[in-house]
User: Fold this.
Amino acid sequence: MLFSRRLMFGLAIAGTMAGALAVPALAGEGPTEIDLFFPVPVDGKLARDMGTLIKEFNEGHPDIKATAVYTGSYDDTLIKTRAAIKAGKPPSAVIMSANFLLDMQIENELTNLDALIKADGTTKEQFLGQLFPALQGNAVINRSVYGVPFHNSTPLLYINADKAKEAGLDPEKPPQTWAELTDWAKKLTKREGDKVTQWGIAIPCAYDYCGWMMETLTMSNGGRYYNEEFGGEVYYDTPSMLGALTWWNDLVTKHKVHAPGATPGPAVSTSFISGNAAMMMLSTGSLTYVRDNAKFAYKVAFIPRNVRNAVPIGGASLIVPAGLEADKQKAAWTLIKWMTSPEKSGWWSRATGYFAPNMAAYKTPEMVEFLNKNPDAKTAVEQLDVAKPWFATYKTVPVRKTLEDEVMLVLNGKKQPKEALAAAQKAADETLKPYNAETSLKLP
Amino acid sequence: MSLAGPAALPVATSAAPRLDLPKRLFTRFRASLPAYLLLLPSLVFLALFTYGAMGRVLIDALYQRATPKAPVRFVGLDNISAVLADPAFTGAVVNNLIYAVGTAIPSIGLALLFALTLSRTHAVSSALRAALFLPVLIPMVAASALFMFIFLPNVGLLDYYIGRLMPVLPNWLGDPDIALYAIMIITIWKNAGYYMLFFLAGLQAVPEDVMEAAHLDGAGPYQRLRHIILPELKPTFLFVIVIAILNAVTQVDHVFVMTQGGPSNSTNLVLFYIYQQAVEHYDVGKASAATLLTLAALMGLTALSFRTMANREGGP
Assistant:
């Protein structure tokens, strides 16, 4: 029996150790420990920049010890945050894709920040007033603040200036309307018999990017894509979106200036850098990549309009998950305020290529100097005047995918725009049904 | 000491044949106690991480919330019928069947061909074996990232070469008709070398004297393959087929990395569907129901293959 007794002893030790791990460390006299979940949607260098930022914060705040935890892509970050909330150990702050906030608020996963703002002696209006107006839509839900914009983007038109000159076009006067863009794309497409050796334009369509581009085209065609005030409605089967998708489809099938099929974002930027596509529509987040890799002169411009100039924002906001202890909540709020201050916000913008949400960041001397050196970074900021919120609904991702799946079918020549949008609308309505049953259709 | 227990068992039972039942059971239990204690650690961990999780899935599959803010309530088999009625799920099952058949047959065929060609060991064949086995060593995620560049439309490695032959190039991962087959190519490339190992081992077991006798009787290479080698390899085939089908259900890393089930759900496989339900739709009930259905199918398959193997061992 000696053997089994030793075994029991071993099990007992293992059990005690597991128990010790499960019991949370008792709060001592030390600094408040908080975790910050952060995604890296673009380059790996961001992780190093974040390390620098948090180190600086900890040195300036001896009573708080913040730890930055890398959590993958935007989608992964949502998954990991939700898993941590479910496990009862939410992180104290998360850099969350700006259009996931509404869905999280509906699921009761966010802390309402109004009280924290009020405790600082600031009004909500003063607080929001520091931000570019276009960014407020994704941070405010039911007139309460749920997120603080941290880094943001808009879609841009990138033009290979060398190829434009070759084709007799003036890159200093980029196309401003869809008609002009179609004309440019035709002139920039090169063929050898049936084979296309250079495409006029490339627009990405993979999950996530495809929905954002559809919102971009729909908005510049006068449309809205979704109900900004209420998470239970999307406007897929509408003339504005029909026009947008039909034009995109025409670029592929009628004008033959856009490669057929759905092309993911990295393939589009590679195609542009290699000279295979003369123009592309892509996020400002890719600006640094293009600046570092293009071996030709390039030019960035506003997204051309058909009805009006309008683009959605992209990027991420800082949020505080629900269910935190008061001291952690307070520490997280200190961290968030520090990270979104004009100086830090501007520093992060220069390091990453995103623009800084805090308008005061552009008045700092470092930023003024940077913009003088890199005038292309200015275009994204100027386009903010016509920017609008990013689509956010109940179950944002599945609702977006219903549209993306249909757009992919159209770009592959398997469906016509009209029937595709009707199918997408039907599928999206089905997904939104439970939410409507609880809100708009719940009648007295 | 623990080994002495079972040996003492017959003595104890024969010495007291008329003991009442509880006592006899107790004696038997005492005798096998060390065995249970030795099994205990594995049982604990299996219970915690396998059966416990499966039990949880079973329970989760029976609950659902009606509206976002409503509490979960018992719905019985509603989740299962909702999954079965979901065209995305049936689509994923069809895709998975195409994927399983379309990857198992070519990779097993190639593996057999490689093994037959390289069955004799010498310097050249060893080097070739190593070369063919190399894809197995590359993690699926790394291989997917690699193939994403190979498949890039217009500028990728594949289009660079094929572009000289074909005027209009396919969009490998962006066309719903082609994407699943592009994904299948990676699986075949990655698994053929792995299955080759099993066939190489199986070939070692083909009796040399039978082969020699066949040779002396004038049997040609095809006859030897058809009547001696293939029948001898039957157990290997069975094993490899089961492994290949299990792989087709469980190895979907490249779908995550390369297509996320798209375009238009054309590369959506069952495991990815479960992930989508759990993570994107935030619908634990439906995800659990789909998991249960998959588990049932896999258990059925495993039981079937075990029975076939047992039959073979028992038979002449």
The longest helix of chain B spans residues 21-60. The interface with chain A takes residues 1-2, 33-34, 37-38, 40-41, 44, 66-70, 148, 152-155, 163, 167-168, 171, 173-177, 260, 262-265, 276, 279-282 of chain B (CB under 8 Å). The longest strand of chain B covers residues 63-64.
